[in-house]
Write a structure and sequence with these properties.
The protein has 503 residues and is α/β, with parallel strands linked by helices. The chain folds into 2 domains: 5-277 and 441-502, FAD/NAD(P)-binding domain; 281-436, Succinate dehydrogenase/fumarate reductase flavoprotein, catalytic domain (Flavocytochrome C3, Chain A, domain 1). The chain has helices spanning 9-15, 30-41, 80-86, 94-100, 119-137, 163-176, 232-238, 259-266, 318-330, 367-374, 378-391, 482-502; strands at 5-6, 19-20, 23-26, 46-50, 70-72, 75-76, 143-144, 159-160, 182-186, 189-195, 201-208, 212-217, 221-223, 247-248, 271-272, 278-283, 301-304, 336-341, 362-364, 428-440, 443-444, 451-453, 459-465. The strands form 6 sheets. A 6-stranded mixed sheet has the order 9-4-3-13-23-22, with helices on both faces. Helix 10 (367-374) crosses helix 11. The radius of gyration is 24 Å and the shape is elongated. It starts with a strand and ends with a helix.
Amino acid sequence: MINILTVGISRIMNEYTNTNFDIIVIGCGIAGLSAAISAQQNGSKVAILERAPREERGGNTRYTESFWRMKSEDEVSEDFEDQFAKNSGGWPDPGILEDLVRDRENQPAVLKSLGIVDPNLIATLAAEAPNALKWLKEFGVKFDFLPLYFLSQSTTRMGPIGGGLALVDALGSYADNNTDDITFFYETAAKKLISDDDGNLIGVSGITKGNKKINLFSSNVVLASGGFEGNSEMLSHYVGPQAQFIRPVSRGGHYNRGEGIQMALEAGAASCGDFSSFHAQPVDPRSKDMEPVVLNYSYGLLINESGSRFTDEAPALVDSTYEAVTRIIMQQKNGIGFAVFDNKLDDIDNWNATVRTRVAPYQANTLEELASLIQIPSEEFLRTVNDFNKACPDNQGDFDPLKPDGLKTDGLPLQKSNWSRPLTEAPYRAWPIICSNCFTFGGIKIDERARVINTEGDVIPGLYAAGEVAGIYYRTYTGATSVMRGAVTGRLAGNDASLRRNS
């Protein structure tokens, strides 16, 4: 564990670089940029520490589609708060929930630090998301209802035209044009929070390129350095040994090593969010594309390396089930599965939208040939497909891929709940699928002003957390809310830190 450096200011200044700022932001994704620019707009001089080089700044945001769970620019989706509530706290005691919905000042002190997301924070996310979106539009970002890689979806989503890169470029350009107020420290990793002899936060110690130490001083620090998907040790510790079969979905994830979370915990911060889980996506391991998701498996079969099915491919719409299915793929031998189809896949209009890899699938004229191509046991594979075909309903009716049709198998130990059509028409195709990690769930507890809460339920003065650093999800990701969360909490942190500086 990383220890906080608690030394006298005078010794630090003599030993290392002395650079003073009003606010220090660690990380340069949507959360960090939103925090830094919000603070600058409120008159603060800001330092941004970014592990990546300038040409790769932006963290995970740079590589994501950046969808927002909204029905318009003015309102979040109808299910926003309900879905967040379901995915933000395990199974708490009902009496505790009654206490937690009170105003924070009236909550029992011991409950304020529990690893349950503050309902006030969820309400703030819902209220502030439209404001964050409109704020981003001031920098030239345009939002719209964009095509998704789901043929159908269970909720409404908007997104910036140009994806997350458009956000990074717009905010980054603004920062580049305001160098008197915003200073970037690229290829610099924050390692320790610095406190004085009385325990007050006074700055950050980091490592620059070439392993050179640097100290930046400020009584306001915003942790926006992402999660720990790029830290194999933390993944193995929290997620388990199967973490070896998980890779970050984007290059940005490799820069997220968890130091922000570790620094906050060492400072006495309360944890929040599910450290054993993460936002899982099914991707093609052969592809170098951004988010090369394979989300067409609902209309075919999922087979493991043994040639057997291992899950219900279509319990509901894929946008609400793909995370659970992906985690089951991760548990298979060597962490891989194969989505298998016959030629009837082409009966589905626009199915290509569900596959974001540009690597062609394996294709063969017989099931035996396909088994050979994907290197699975032919005998077991043929038995699996034959048993499935026999279990499919005879009366197929009109095939509608846009809504669950209830056409389920009959007689299989593991049924398929919807879209059960036999695989009988050549050519046969298969895509390999592995589990990828978009971002981790476990992080630091914050209040509705993005202030870090300690283990006693009190605010740690001057310390903020925004974006992935702030834990908020349990069990399942509330889809299309991650970048939204980063923008909202980043703005909250930057604004509050500026108010604190000016007070």
